[in-house]
Design goal:
Low-confidence stretches: none
Structural class: alpha/beta
Strand content: 5-15%
Largest sheet: 4 strands, parallel
Distance between the termini: 20 Å
Number of domains: 2
Shape: globular
Helix content: 40-55%
CATH architecture of the largest domain: 3-Layer(aba) Sandwich
Number of strands: 7
Mean pLDDT: 96
CATH class of the largest domain: Alpha Beta
Strand order of the largest sheet: 5-4-6-7
């Protein structure tokens, strides 16, 4: 029996569009009626997750809970959230809904174990909030995988690429990509990870597998594939 996807989005809007597009393009369908029923709640008014985690802004939790409850009421059978940093609040959100809520980081770990089984060290490109919360580091360490993060100056450069006025969240691509490539190359040269995780869902908007020689792990692609499977549909990619 087919299930309806609920997408808790707006963090940011373009990452939400990117996930929905991956689901639509990835579903094995030959006509409109063969696609997955989806409910997208795109709320860009949700306070910044990183600001909240580092103590510089209001908590997004009330907005996230409200959004999840709205999706459940609207008829979603399960929820996905195309924002890595927002998973810092996952444990509290799920207390307020009775439908399944896929955990993005857990899905990424399962993918790595399945597809990159012998990997022992992976690089992480993510926001300050994700890194300081140790979402990836703690989960992966428990599973025998070391997480390499950029040094402080490179991390500041990555944050500028995402958040500055002409950054990815502002709709710009070329200059932010140059900045992120600099961070990527430093990380690869200095710490030699065996793969790279796009730990901020905006990063794949500018960075692609062709930009590096190690596997590029895209959480939103993984989430899209799992969403298709959980909905009871078939993927074009399998």
């Amino acid at each position: 029996m087919s299930k309806t996807i609920g997408i808790l989005g707006g963090m940011g809007p373009e990452a939400t569009i990117y996930l929905f597009n991956l689901i639509v393009k990835g579903t094995k369908a030959e006509k409109d009626q063969e696609h997955i029923t989806s409910i997208v709640f795109n709320n860009p008014k949700i306070p910044d997750r990183t600001d909240a985690i580092v103590g510089n802004g209001p908590s997004p939790l009330p907005y996230l809970i409200e959004g999840a409850k709205m999706l459940e009421t609207a008829g979603a059978d399960f929820i996905v959230m195309p924002c890595v940093t927002a998973h810092y609040f996952y444990g509290e959100i799920v207390k307020h809904v009775s439908i399944p809520f896929l955990h993005l980081l857990v899905e990424v770990l399962r993918y790595i174990k399945r597809e990159l089984g012998n990997l022992k060290k992976i690089g992480l490109l993510a926001t300050d909030g994700t890194i300081q919360s140790r979402l990836f580091q703690d989960l992966f360490h428990k599973n025998g995988i070391e997480v390499a993060i950029p040094k402080d100056n490179d991390q500041k450069l990555l944050m500028k690429a995402v958040y500055q006025k002409k950054g990815i969240k502002g709709g710009y691509k070329r200059h932010p990509k140059t900045m992120i490539l600099e961070v990527l190359n430093e990380l690869l040269q200095e710490q030699q990870p065996e793969g790279i995780i796009a730990g901020c869902t905006e990063i794949p908007l500018v960075l692609k597998q062709a930009d590096m020689d190690v596997p590029f792990v895209e959480p939103l692609r993984i989430l899209a594939e799992e969403s298709i499977r959980k909905s009871g549909y078939h993927s074009r990619n399998r």
